Amino acid sequence: MLRKCSVPSVLWLTGTLLAVGVSVVGHRVWEGEPYPAVVPDQVAVRLKGAAQRVYEEVALPGRPGVNSSGVETGTCYYRGLRSIAHIDEGRSDVRSFVLAWRVTDVPRSTVRAGQERVRRRLEHEGWRLNGESVSEMGFRFEHPDTDDMVAVDWYEPTGTLAVSVYTPCGKLPAGFDEYAWPESEWSAG
Predict the structure, then answer these.
(1) Contacts of 188 (CB under 8 A, 6+ apart)
(2) Is residue 168 part of a domain?
């Protein structure tokens, strides 16, 4: 047998459910889409592997050393309406990652052949072309699943081949110290 509920009880229950729903939606609108959690060491290993692979595919004669600071972090910003309250204020708990390297005095013909090898491999693996002619002779590809990006550029005045491998923003684990991070070190080899 069903028990008859009083009108005040039904109104109280409806009001409570409505308040909870509005709170959840309001929080999401204020905070925006949450950033995915990342494990910095895993990200560094992935970036270093991608950077090394591009180095090998470009196949520079004599395998010259490269200028690189290793894996570095970049600033990420608030999302949702909260971003209006924190314009141009980066979040300390969310970072992007990049590994960039460059070599100077590389002839155009060497770069062009190396870029074509990299381009063919990325296209074969399903990466999407995201931009061309970023420099005098360059391109950028984005991975459809991870949104990682690979950019390969060449600057004629100095013959500089510049390669960057990026990851999008992700939420860092508590206690991560980007300045005391041994996994960030990289050199082509």
Answers:
(1) 51, 52, 55, 63, 65, 66, 68, 101
(2) yes
Total number of domains constituting the chain? 1
Q: How is residue 101 written in tokens?
A: 């390297």
186 within some domain: no
Q: At what angle do helices 40-58 and 108-124 cross, to 10 degrees?
A: 130
CATH of the domain at 73: 3.30.2030
Q: Which residue has the higher pLDDT, 7 or 60?
A: 60
In a domain, 111, yes or no: yes
**What is the residue range of 119's domain?**
40-174
Phi-psi region of 123 (alpha: psi -120 to 50; beta: other; left: phi over 0): alpha
Strands annotated E in the chain = 67-77, 90-103, 128-132, 137-142, 149-155, 160-171
73: pLDDT strictly greater than 90: yes
Q: Is residue 170 part of a domain?
A: yes
How many CA atoms are closer than 13 Å to the CA of 10, on its beta-carbon side? 5
Look at the block and give the residue holding tokens 């708990």. Answer: 93
How much is the pTM? 0.80
Distance of CA 150 to the CA centre of its chain: 10
